[in-house]
Amino acid sequence: MTASAPPSSWRASVVTLFPAMFPGPLGLSLAGEALARGAWSLETEDIRRHGIGRHRAVDDTPAGGGPGMVMRADVLAAALDAAAPPGDPRPRLLMSPRGAPLVQKRVRELAAGPGLVILCGRFEGVDERIIAGRGLEETSIGDYVLSGGEIAALAVLDSCIRLLPGVMGAAASETEESFESGLLEYPHYTRPREWEGQAIPDILLGGNHKAVAEWRLAEARRLTRERRPDLLRPAGD
Description:
It is a single chain. By secondary structure, the chain is of the alpha/beta class. The protein is 27% helix and 18% strand. The chain is built from six helices and nine strands, in the order βαβββαβαβαβαββα. Strands 2-1-6-5-7 form a five-stranded parallel β-sheet, with helices on both faces. Helix 3 packs across helix 5. The N and C termini lie far apart (45 Å).
């Protein structure tokens, strides 16, 4: 189990068959620095520790037949209860391709709370009964299938941790990034002024902040129309 920071920090608990995958990239850069100084904490709960019998079995054949194996509800319940006993106020997420897509609004809600408990599935999935039995929120990071929930859990945690107070250096940059305003982010440029025949747009070099802001908004709208028109549709369409 990973050493945790003071109890006042944003607490993450990951329930997984592969605790060695954590903190992984979250132990580096800004997230790693924040972890080291106690801005957030991380604990892992090894599902195998709660397995059944001499071989610590965590899965079984699917009821009704079919390929693969399914993770057992009793084993997962024991692991979840060890990571987050009754009364723990943190949301409990199950990383699943059939879950609700993770959006920035939900990320902000999660980052503003006390932390997260994340269950990482493997094999064909988990026994359906654990979802209702432990109040799991099925969450997806995209319309594709991974080998397990660990990489998805890392993505969720990273998206939350960067919003915690004191983690990012420039707070203003948060509000100008993709999805914060319902638009994709505008293009960025820096030195050199010209590179391989491509120049920085003149409007960004003229010192007119109002014109720059208008250009950036127009570019954000253009990119959103071209790449993610779904973001421009009214809710309910």
